Amino acid sequence: MTVLAVRDLTVRYAPGVDAVRGVGFDVGAGEVLGVVGESGSGKTALALAMMGLLPPDARVTGSVRLRGEELLGRSDAELSRVRGKDLAMVFQDPLSALTPVHPVGDQIAEAVRIHSGATWPAARARAVELLDLVGIPGAARRARAHPHEFSGGMRQRVMIAMAIANDPVAIVADEPTTALDVTVQAQVLDVLRAAKEATGAAIVLITHDLGVVAGFADRIMVMYAGRAVESGPVEEVYRRPRMPYTIGLLQSLPRMGVAGGARPAPIDGAPLAAVEGAPLAAVEGAPLAAVEGAGPVVASAPGGGCAFRARCPVAVDACADGDPEPALVGPARHTAACVNTEATADPDEVFPLPDPVLPPVRPPRRERPAVLEVDGLVRHHPLYRGTLFRRRAGTVHAVDGIGFDVREAETLALVGESGCGKTTALMEILRLARPQRGRVAVLGQDTAALRRSRRKALRRDVQVVFQDPFTSLDPRMRVADIIAEPLAAHGVRAPGGRVRELLDLVGLEPVHAARYPHGLSGGQRQRVGIARALALEPRLLLLDEPVAALDVSVQAGVMDLLEGLRARLGIAYLFVAHDLAVVHRIADRVAVMYMGRIVEIGSVDEVYGHPAHPYTRALLDAVPLPDPRLERRRRRVPLRGDLPDPTAPPPGCRFRSRCPRYAELGAVEARRCQEHDPMPRPMSTDRESDQWAACHHPLAEARAVL
């Protein structure tokens, strides 16, 4: 039975600026439709149009029917009786979607009262039931807490509880797992599954993560430039994609479980701009919702024709004749909008996977000099309460005695959940100053003993690339000035030639030198950040989530760039990330952090192939695979709960409250975890192995050195 039917939906912000162009689909009861595409493809505009939440200047045409009743054209008062009751939405950022001044229980209860007329006591009791349903421990107590007292994953669960409060017939989830750790993402998806089973609602899941869609959705719709370019059953589309853009998205994914981490194929170019190839941000009068993100939308391709043809490797002359309409290309309503589907039968022919970048022959790791050495690094932050009379209320153990080294031309990745201390460790190294405790040595020089002049000189050899390329670049400076700034700071004369050289090195054109950051795509901005970091020819590059804010198609190109630079220049990378598939692709060694400690470290092949610590195993299990058949057959042990209070780490093993292995131990073995903090120890008798884990009962017991 069709619950939600969309026909020929169009969203126009200004003349010639169409965010959504003629999109249509059906979603049945209990069915999940995954909507995917690059930033700016029209996904969020589609969701807001269905909910009636677009700004007043947006013109929406077409049809949106919920159980046969038309929603478009209704007044806001009429839609308010539908929103939250029959049609609910889970927003991307739960912190901004929840009111900060009211307890979460009252906010859920308000949604119940508005649509059911229940009394406050009954509505509050229902709110507690819903919080318990979505897996929030101590639901009665946590219902009285405010949004800032919850973690990101728990706030998203509160949003889901509010969405299902009135048993809706359809739920629109707009990027509900974006910016969440893989473990929290898995928990949120489990909650959405439970909500679907409890309510029988149809779900429209908007996301850019094709791994999430592979394991959760029944059908998929791929959007490009405001149009649906391919749709069909998830397994059919993943197995036999026929639209070149869909093939490009799938081929650009980093994949785990493939020897050496298969090198993805990037999609060259960027989505077409809204007006004559100009960036959407430059279109006067375009609302902020349309401008944000790197993805411009299009009214149509210049000169007409298929909007993707400028980026398509199999484009033919017929592609310029007009925007192709979706046509049946497979069973079960598998459609694609392409005039050359005969050329898309083999994805590897459309977007061939690049050959691996072979690094120069170098001496073994132990014979190469250490670029960075960290030993017993500690960073604790005092926690104060009160305003007029401040008092110390505790200490946050952000980094609590970690140690590792990075060798020349090597990439070490720090991974773990948000709050585990990855970025804090990176920032402590970047300070090049005396740490609270422990030792940091860069190129053999102890940072605690550096004088001011020597510290400035050493900064030439240590540079950083930040996570968000837009906020890390000065919006008032042109690209050429941004790249030349570190050169001027260190007294390098005549930087013009060096700027042109750096632009070429990171794959940008000379014309980009005169642009401002807002005139670049997200991937181009990140390349500018990398060029700035390389200006002084550093020997160590600190990378803080450098591809987390980028579309998967852009990620592949940036990773190719980083991999090629390391091979050519011999730079060492300290790579902070939460995406384990990206780490598998780019890193040589990986260190897994939990609550300020490194719980496992070793080569990527050893740690991914034979994880010793249960936390590492849980992280790997939570990574979604972009293959529906593999993803749905996987057996994984879910990681329950949230990180303990960082101001009061539990005694003994800090992971035991969430450890699946601990729950199966006998009393004697469990007491060891309760009373003794595990120290790192080698996991193999092989002298060539460098895998260490801090666990009393490692998964690799047979290989452990006891």
From TrEMBL:
Pfam families: ABC_tran, oligo_HPY. Residues 4-250, 378-620 form the ABC transporter domain. PROSITE patterns: ABC_TRANSPORTER_1, ABC_TRANSPORTER_2. One of its GO terms (molecular function) is ATP binding. It is a peripheral membrane protein. It comes from Actinomadura violacea. Gene3D superfamilies: P-loop containing nucleotide triphosphate hydrolases (3.40.50.300). It is found in: Cell membrane. Belongs to the ABC transporter superfamily. InterPro entries: AAA+_ATPase, ABC_Ni/Peptide_Import, ABC_transporter-like_ATP-bd, ABC_transporter-like_CS, Oligopep_ABC_C, P-loop_NTPase. Its main location: membrane. It comes from the Bacteria. This is ABC transporter ATP-binding protein. PANTHER family: DIPEPTIDE TRANSPORT ATP-BINDING PROTEIN DPPD, OLIGOPEPTIDE TRANSPORT ATP-BINDING PROTEIN APPD. Keywords: ATP-binding, Cell membrane, Membrane, Nucleotide-binding, Transport. CDD domains: ABC_NikE_OppD_transporters.
